[in-house]
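Quick check before the chapter quiz. The format below is the same one you will see on the exam, so make sure you can read both the input and the output lines.
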Amino acid sequence: MIKGLVIYDEVDVEKNKSYINWLIEDGIKYNLDLELILAKDINYRVLDSKFKFVINRSRDFRITYNLELVGLRVFNKFNFCRLGNDKLEAYNFMETLDIKYPKVYRSIEELNSNKKIIEKPKNGHGGIGVNILKDFKSLDFNKNVYQGFIGDYVGDIRFYIINNNIVNSVIRLPKEDEILSNFSRGGNVELYKYSYLQKEIIDKILSNIDIDFGGIDFLLLENGEILFNEFEDAVGSRMLSYLGVNNTMELFLEHIRKSVKGMK
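Here is the expected output.
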């Protein structure tokens, strides 16, 4: 069997225990011997002699960078891990592709106090720390992203990507008078049938970056337009499981098996 590591932050292990066990147990079916390690316990000097690949679920792109330096194959790779955990870098990337995203204010001089502004952490996930800005006294452009409020927002589309292919998509719908549509925060979720034009946008992204297993989130507007929202690096399958779709684990593990097959 090919030995690999699964990395989590200590704070995330308990709430993801069932997913971790599922990953490790199903890995055996694909000739993958997976072992859990906490991010704080990594010893880079001995990893490359014992393990051939790593699944980094810590959301720390510095870990991925260092693992790739010692020659390990990491799922996801550094470039995507970084974009998935730094929203401003993700918007800069969309800028190079000419893909639309919400208005981002990059300095206090750009901010308009008469408009609704959304404040969110650059490295945030799950809707944590997302608020409507109440005052301009404690702005931190190093830690946060400041976006224009989208008034004609319908919901949040997530495209699930495995091996650079769309494998599923869902739409998350916020509760009335809520700005967040996150399933973990009470939003409703449905399977979503994307259009040909929407697929073209996703394909444009995927032709410029490799995603082993991740999410691409877009905001759906009332006129049918979509705006890029964020990448999800350590994407899970809770919403899909809720909707009765349970094939992401086998697709991901098969992708890993093919990627590491023949490694010496």
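If your answer matched, good. Residues 87-100+152-242 form a domain with the D-amino Acid Aminotransferase; Chain A, domain 1 fold (CATH 3.30.470.20).
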